[in-house]
Each structure stands twice: as structure tokens, then as C-alpha cells.
Amino acid sequence: MAIEIDFRLARIADAGHLAAMSREFIESGLGWSWTPARVRKHIHSRDSVVLIAKSGTRIAGFAIMRFGDEEAHLDLLAVKPIYRREGVGRRLIEWLEDSALVAGVSIIYLEVRAGNTGAQRFYENLGYRRIRRLHGYYRGREAAVCMGIDLWEARVSADHQN
Questions:
Q1: 77-116, pLDDT tens digit by residue?
Q2: In which domain, by residue range, is 148 found?
Q3: Mapping DSSP to helix (H, G, I), strand (E, B) and coil, where does residue 48 land?
Q4: Contact of 152 with 141, CB cutoff 8 Å
């Protein structure tokens, strides 16, 4: 049976929980940069979307995306382990991609730990491509792989394949 997931924009009261999820599932071993104050800043920002996926009353995952005039940047995506491989991450990304297209933005970039091959495969399965490796990106300790997608190009290509 599929897990029922609802989406909503984050509220200020969610900032501490989202920051804790970032520390546990994303920033583990790197120190903590996505503090509650930083998450609150993005919740308040008109240039950011902080999206929460909920299963009942529980937060299953969340994502933070910043929007510019011509491109967007996925800053964070976290899904609690119990909800992984249930489509939660994919649905968070799809929601944000649809929002980007509505805003007239088709290019999305993100960084993922170079050693996190599972996350890299996840994004590749969604159409994201590796752009370059960024040595020392994470606090000078760990490399990142920069990935990106052109949503217009990806959707036109998908239309031609169908």
C-alpha cells in the first residue's frame, strides 16, 4: 500500500525540526550550517520555497529551493529513512520543478556529496546530469558533484520519446 503524502509550505515553527533533519541526514560529519535561523530565513524569503512532505502528522521530508530570474538552486532535500523509496523525494522535486516552470525558470542546479552515489543516482533518474566535481566544497573536507537540469529540454525530450 502506498503511503499517502501531503505537501505544504513550511511555517516558522517547522524551522527547528527541518534544521535537525538537515544535520542528521545531510550534514552528518560536516558540522552544522543549516541552523534553525538559516532555515527561518529561507521560510521568510520571497526568493525561496521551503516545502514539506507530510504523512499524517509526521514530516516525511522537505526541500529548500532558491529561485533566481533565470535559474533555481536546490539547497536541501531530505527524506526520513522510513519514507525513502516511497516516492517522497521524487514528488518533492516534481512539485518544485513545476513551480520553477510556472515562474519561468527552467534551469535547476544542486550539489551532492561526491561519496553519496545513491543520491547521485536518484537525481540522474530524474534527468539531472553531472556538470562538474567541486573539490573541497563541503567545508574544505569533502568534494561535491554539481548537477543540473534544463526542464524545458528534458520535457521536450520526454515528449519526443513518447
A1: 999 998 988 889 999 999 999 999 999 999 999 999 999 9
A2: 6-161
A3: strand
A4: no
